[in-house]
Amino acid sequence: MPINWGQRWEEPCSCRPDADKIESLLETGSGYRIFLNRIKEENWDKRMLKLYEKSIVNYLRTKTRFQRKNPIDILFSLVYGRVVATITDGQTQKKVFAIEILR
Questions:
Q1: Could you write out the DSSP letters of every residue in 30-83?
Q2: Rounded mean pLDDT of 11-20?
Q3: What is the spatial distance between Cα 82 and Cα 37, in angstroms, rounded to a whole number?
Q4: CA–CA dist 54, 49 (Å, integer)
Q5: Taking the model in full, what pTM does it have?
Q6: H/E element, 18
């Protein structure tokens, strides 16, 4: 059936049948997984930097060779549902799962 793109939907559609299908696929042992590709809050990466500043500084001091005097940029992103931190000082770049930083 062709879709009429000019027609507007005036009634809400029910997603319940699809939700039931998805729920059955996600049962333990099914082999399927769900990955986030977006976080609702727009500034979530800046918030992470602020909330976990002490853990990040501790990680940088103990697990990397970045120098205090060099400016360091940290970019958080989602990769297959996992938060990844990309740490760079302009010359060296390191990618690490955020959970490693927070431990």
A1: SS--------SSTTHHHHHHHHTHHHHHHHHHHH----TTS--EEEEEEETTEE
A2: 63
A3: 9
A4: 9
A5: 0.61
A6: helix 16-25
